[in-house]
Amino acid sequence: MLDPVPAAQPATGLAVRCTRALLSPWSRFSLLVAVLLGAAATMLLLEPQRLLATGWPGQLSGGAVAVTLFGLAYGVCTVAFVPRPLLNLAAGALFGTQAGLAAALAGTVLGAGISFGLGRVLGQDALRTLLRGRWLKAADGQLSRHGFRSMLALRLFPGVPFAAANYCAAVSRMGYRPFLVATGLGSVPNTAAYVVAGSEASSPTSPAFLAAMGFIVLTGLGAVVVAWRKRHRVTSG
């Protein structure tokens, strides 16, 4: 008679243990932190916002190729925490209102999508274990259940940092598609104001420039008032 085949033994070697450790939630989160810190440090050293605004190659000063390249650079820069207002002003100054707005919005959605993907793959499993506070659970529930309208409101409200909204959405159970659509739609007003201001910067007394700056100032003041009222409610409650 044939001897019975011995049951396969579970793999417990060093390679398996190392693989599990590297793929653990906190290891992936550490990788996310390292990637973002490296990207931010690179941007501080290279100062790409100055390159985009003043050092853009002359042969790429117009046309679809230039707009596409700027949109790609814009997306990468936002992932590395380059302030979007600077990039929006540069888009308007380089390409005018229409092409500049198209490049800025495309870069906004691209950068948000990259950040969302990084946060979802590398950070969600680790960070969800920290959702114990009342406010954190409420924010997570709002984004998970009403993702599109919640993200749309966050994008329309200029007081919420772009990167913070990206990673909060990534940690929640919000879907990828509603996140991108809400980002694209909600970013239009504020982005357009900065792009117009950049395109009309050489004519600071023009109606378009004054209207754009008025919108930026009013929305900024509104963000400050709302943030102050919320902080006052939290401290008094």
Q: What do you see in this structure?
A:
32% of the residues are buried. This protein starts with 13 loop residues before the first helix and ends with a helix. The chain has helices at 14-22, 25-46, 48-54, 64-79, 84-127, 134-145, 147-156, 162-171, 176-186, 188-199, 207-236. The model has no long low-confidence stretch (mean pLDDT 81). Helix 5 (84-127) packs parallel to helix 8, helix 5 (84-127) runs antiparallel to helix 9 (176-186) and helix 6 (134-145) crosses helix 7 (147-156). The chain is built from eleven helices and no strands. The longest helix is centred in the middle third of the chain and has 44 residues, at 84-127. It is an all-alpha fold and 237 residues long.
